[in-house]
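To assess whether the prediction recovers the assembly geometry, we first specified each molecular entity separately, as shown.
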Amino acid sequence: MAKKAKSRTIPVRLISMAMTGYFRTMIRPRTHRPLSMLKYDPVVKKKVLFLEATKGGRNK
Amino acid sequence: MATPQPASGLLNKLPTRLLNFFARYPPQHYSAAVRPPPTDTTPAPAQASEEALPSPYTPNRDAKGHKRPDPTEFSVTRALLYSNPDHPNPFLPRKNFRTGKWIGPRIGLRTQADLVKLAKKYNVEELLPAGRKSTEFKETRKTERGLQVKGTGIGQKVKGHKWERTMETRLEDRRKAMMEMPEMIRLWKQRGHGRGWKKWPKK
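The predicted structure of the complete assembly is given in tokenized form:
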């Protein structure tokens, strides 16, 4: 049986680097480099850096 | 409250159980009213230490973090539990100072409670000997102990919710992270907005 085709895009979780536990979920192309952006964190009420969380070193 | 000397008519109205009790333990010798006032024992800690050392009613609560009060310390409730050496209070345990053994009260706590309830009903509670079931003792103890909320005593604490227990460390982590945030953002911008970023958080 043929292997199931992987989707072109994947959902990723961008974690607030303010260590508040706040995160945003985004969809990016599988082959794209990991996402990172400055976004608002409502817990600390500031724009902070959000970095994509790795799963099993996929982003390395 | 009734006066220590009941009216003669009252005697006929009292139930047999109370009458029997008063016949055996006459109020003029045994009742709480003939006890010396508790203030008398205040300047005499030696007497308190002799009379009210480890009580058999106090189980070992040290294991639960309960801080046992100093038994030699004067307390009003302890002074209330008075026993005349000539007429030993039937509601209180006694210590045999020769053998060092405790003798239980002549009348058990459950029976004491029954008697107190009965006496209260007929308004003659003051004629009973001093005991742990008396209204006076219970009220004094309540005022003496104050608000009995678990965890508020010295050296006591409650477990609490997990978010309460970890609150301090989480806030500290957050504070540290926010201190380093401008530097992190500067580095991130310097490395091409994440193109050369190596330290990705683990999920």
